[in-house]
Amino acid sequence: MAMKSFSVFFFVLLLASPILQVARCQSEAEADVAEAVEGGELGIVGEEAQDFGSGNFDSAPGVETLCLFPKNSAKLVSAGEETELLVGVENVGESPVNVIAITASVHLPFDHRMLVQNLSAQAFNNASVPPSKQATFPYIFAVSKYLQPGTFDLVGNIFYEIDQHPYQSTFYNGTIEVAEAGGFLSVESVFLVTLGIALLVLFGLWLHGQFQRISKKTKRAPKVEVGTRTTDTSLDEWLQGTAYTQSASKSKKKK
Ligand SMILES: *[C@@H]1O[C@H](CO)[C@@H](O)[C@H](O)[C@H]1NC(C)=O
Ligand SMILES: *[C@@H]1O[C@H](CO)[C@@H](O)[C@H](O)[C@H]1NC(C)=O
Ligand SMILES: *[C@@H]1O[C@H](CO)[C@@H](O)[C@H](O)[C@H]1NC(C)=O
């Protein structure tokens, strides 16, 4: 009974982590990205197509951006491996917005002037967002595989033109968690597995204690009932002087 409820509890614990994560991502995705780009209008040209000036442009007032890490609410990035994020662009202005490219860079969180890495640029060709429409642009990046695991700041910029005038917006300026290459263990799952193991050990100890109690009881029971010394002489030897022998001799005296 206890065993059964325990194992159910344990499996629920193990299963809960990924389910919770998926649920969180879905709600995030549903809330933020209502419409994606209508089929194939994005002309993805390739990486490093041009060198985009380093933060010289203003952002246009009629453009709103948001950033989403699909299926990765922890913003966990494996060093050296590709990670995808989605940049949502909403055109609340009156002219079409021509998205040109997305770039990003990695900085030290405690000092933004310390640039760790320039990430590759993703260029788009004739990716136009008409007025009062929104579109989502993918950006795939990989931080250096030599980056130490830890927290870094990612600054993502999107470059676009409105009426041939260049602008840029920062769509993300926040932290990412860099994990060691190939390390897929999140902090959460490590915690849950550790908790599970600890619970298992505790349960094992408890079970051990229960067994000892039960075996003591069963050893005592026949002896008290029979009340003779013909059996268990060996048992008596190592029980000499314990509470058990004392109580046994007491009951004998009563007879
Ligand atoms: C990153 O890019 C900026 C601007 O493009 C440049 O000034 C800087 O030297 C680059 N840094 C590294 C480490 O590549
Ligand atoms: C972009 O594509 C539209 C049609 O999808 C076309 O009318 C327009 O001329 C193109 N613009 C450029 C700069 O290629
Ligand atoms: C990003 O945020 C940091 C502080 O949180 C700030 O110093 C930095 O200027 C910001 N960068 C951009 C491009 O907005």
Automatic annotation (TrEMBL):
<keyword id="KW-0472">Membrane</keyword>
<keyword id="KW-1133">Transmembrane helix</keyword>
<keyword id="KW-0106">Calcium</keyword>
<feature type="transmembrane region" description="Helical">
    <location>
        <begin position="190"/>
        <end position="209"/>
    </location>
</feature>
<keyword id="KW-0256">Endoplasmic reticulum</keyword>
<dbReference type="InterPro" id="IPR005595">
    <property type="entry name" value="TRAP_alpha"/>
</dbReference>
<dbReference type="GO" id="GO:0005783">
    <property type="term" value="C:endoplasmic reticulum"/>
</dbReference>
<protein>
    <recommendedName>
        <fullName>Translocon-associated protein subunit alpha</fullName>
    </recommendedName>
</protein>
<keyword id="KW-0732">Signal</keyword>
<comment type="similarity">
    <text>Belongs to the TRAP-alpha family.</text>
</comment>
<feature type="signal peptide">
    <location>
        <begin position="1"/>
        <end position="25"/>
    </location>
</feature>
<dbReference type="GO" id="GO:0005789">
    <property type="term" value="C:endoplasmic reticulum membrane"/>
</dbReference>
<dbReference type="Pfam" id="PF03896">
    <property type="entry name" value="TRAP_alpha"/>
</dbReference>
<comment type="function">
    <text>TRAP proteins are part of a complex whose function is to bind calcium to the ER membrane and thereby regulate the retention of ER resident proteins. May be involved in the recycling of the translocation apparatus after completion of the translocation process or may function as a membrane-bound chaperone facilitating folding of translocated proteins.</text>
</comment>
<keyword id="KW-0812">Transmembrane</keyword>
<comment type="subunit">
    <text>Heterotetramer of TRAP-alpha, TRAP-beta, TRAP-delta and TRAP-gamma.</text>
</comment>
